[in-house]
Amino acid sequence: MSTPADVTQAWAWALLDGLSQAGVRRVVISPGSRSTPLTLAALRHPSLISRVIIDERSAAFHALGLAKAEANPVAVIATSGSAVANWFPAVVEADMGRVPLILLSADRPPELQDCGANQTMDQIGLFGGHVRAFHPLPPAETETGWLAPLAARVVAASLEPLPGPVHVNVPLREPLVPPADTGIPASVAAPHRRLAARARPSSDTLETLERVIAGGRGAIVCGTEDLGADGRAAVLDLAERLAVPVFADALSGLRFEARTHTGVLAHPDQVARAAPPADWVLRLGGTPVAKALSTWLQQARGRPQVVVSATPRVADPEGTATHVTHADPGEVCRGLTGPKGPDDWLQEVQALDDAAATAAEAVCEDNTPFEGSVLRRLVRALPPGTPLVLGNSLPVRACDWLAGRVPDGPRPFGNRGVSGIDGTLSTAFGIAAAKGPSVAVVGDLTFLHDLGGLALGRDLPLVILLLDNGGGGIFDHLPQASLPEFERGWLTPPTLDAITAARAFGLSAETIATTDDAVAAVCAALDRPAASVIRLPIDRAESLRRFRSFFATRPPIRPPGSPAS
User: Fold this and answer.
1) Based on the number of CB atoms within 10 Å of its own CB, is 337 exposed (0-12), middle (13-18) or buried (19 or more)?
2) Residue pair 389/363 in contact by the 8 Å Cβ criterion
């Protein structure tokens, strides 16, 4: 006869086995008592790869990194109470960044709710509209056959039509540990595989778009979202057929493709500051980092701007879209044939880009530490395809502004859903766990904000390049810098010794004095089996001067149709 603990364990197994049969391969676990049945099921399942991380906040961001790297749902397990609330920042990032997570929160059973029971709070609907679906399970029962179909629906909801997190709340009664080890149960769930299909545009949609982009000086704009290798290839093919420039965000990966060409601008932000508005724009892959590009799109208000999104969520913060279609961006690019734009337009924009590249080389030639020169040299030095995680605030912008275009460059990643600095190291460790030796470039505040994430580094090959500009350097570029309270309210220099902190976690750590030495140290550290921290001190005032020098070097704006120099 089964004991109550056996029933609970079989219940948890049925849920985890159902997730496995539906395609989940990884589980990130934070230790806790109430979640014991879920933890045991995950640890004992032969098809699940589990990692245990003490800090729930770090665990959720680590799962986010794994899911980003593998484009597959990752499950997270935590015990009841405030442990679950620590997931919230990662849940919001997963929501806005369209990353599939399965949130398995253990909970107290109904009789322990609202009565002062320890470690108990209302977890029903905890994440509100930030999850694609919420499933409050009943306490464990002997009938488990329906859990596998539920798990399949959970996985499907995390992937389509809008990828993101799904929350399953699992109330569990004591006893939580089965009285004897009965071995690993056989899988009872039939494999349930989602048959992925690209959303193809209809022939009517393609005909309409052909008319919209017929002739004139067009452009393709690609934001921070990953279009995939096929999608990026389709963009490149379309740009060649139409003879139009591609304003590609650094995180899109298009600037670092093996076959990237001069139609993909090396410095789209700088070109957008000088180029006249395009006659039409095809917009793919979400919102770019560059504010100048957003302004350029606003200058083209009233002209055709087509936003293509594979999901129901549309990126149009400027409110300038004239046409919106829900289809796979790669399929749309493959379906468009022409006509070819005027040659002088592409030549003019490429001339502006060449001028920006010359200015970038000039401002980055000094070996004095500077965020722009670090990113410009790093993307050229890393082995092809190396995962490169860019922290928010200044690192991602420095890469977008000054890294340029590098054929066969690194594979960029970033948390641009809500663009926070929290959880960046844990996310990067997730990417390293999935992809192998990786690099994360972060500022000092981002490093401090996820200090606990360093605990993941003992067995994961991540090189952390810490650009230490004394805290809050991004605000030097914003209007707040003019306030009399600026230094006290916005500049927050960390008092922590980053090298001592990294070594306390058992990691290799060193401070480097020059840009070239920092890049060389990063490349050398890629061969280490554990994490390394390379700290590069940067003079914030000198950094600001060099950024301003670059932006002040603007090519003159030529009227449409004028000959390129």
Assistant:
1) exposed
2) no
> Partners of 75 in the beta sheet?
27, 102
Distance, in Å, from the CA atom of 160 to the CA atom of 492, rounded to the nearest integer, reads 41
Candidates 54, 96, 99, 45; CA nearest to 78 is 54
* Per-residue model confidence as pLDDT tens digits over 263-322: 999 999 999 999 999 999 999 999 999 999 999 999 999 999 999 999 999 899 989 999
| pLDDT at residue 192 in the model | 64
Q: Quick one: angle between helices 343-364 and 371-381, nearest 10?
A: 110
The total of other beta-carbon atoms located within 10 Å of residue 395's CB is 25
What is the gyration radius of the CA atoms in the chain, in angstroms? Answer: 25
Distance CA 414, CA 431 (A): 11
What's the CA gap between 460 and 436, in Å, rounded? 8
Asked if 445 and 474 touch (Cβ cutoff 8 Å), the reply is no
For residue 195, which amino acid is it? L
CA 184 to chain centre: 36
Beta bridge partners of 412: 388
Confidence of residue 195 (pLDDT cuts 50, 70, 90): low
Of residues 79 and 563, the one with the higher pLDDT is 79
Strand order of the β-sheet with 246-248 is: 246-248, 218-222, 280-284, 305-309, 323-326
The CA-to-CA distance between both ends of the chain, in Å, stands at: 87
Other C-beta atoms closer than 10 Å to the C-beta of 263 total 22
- How crowded is residue 488: how many other Cβ atoms within 10 Å of its Cβ? 9
Q: Collapsing DSSP states into helix, strand and coil, what is residue 443?
A: strand
Confidence of residue 553 (pLDDT cuts 50, 70, 90): confident
SS (H, E, C) 409-442: CCEEECCCCCCCCCCHHHHHHHHHHHHCCEEEEE
Full set of structural domains in the chain with CATH: 4-171 (3.40.50.970), 203-353 (3.40.50.1220), 365-551 (3.40.50.970)
Side-chain-side CA neighbours of 64 within 13 Å: the count stands at 34
Closest CA to 330 of 254, 396, 279: 254
Q: Does the predicted TM-score (pTM) go above 0.85? A: yes
In whole angstroms, give the CA distance from residue 435 to residue 334. 29
* Tokens at 59, concatenated: 């665990």
Q: Are 74 and 66 in contact, with CB atoms under 8 Å apart?
A: yes
Tally the C-alpha atoms within 13 A of residue 250's C-alpha that lie toward its C-beta.
31
**Nearest partner of 25 among 58, 79, 70, judged by Cα:** 70
Mean pLDDT of the chain: 92
What's the pLDDT score for residue 564? Answer: 35
Strand partners, 400: none
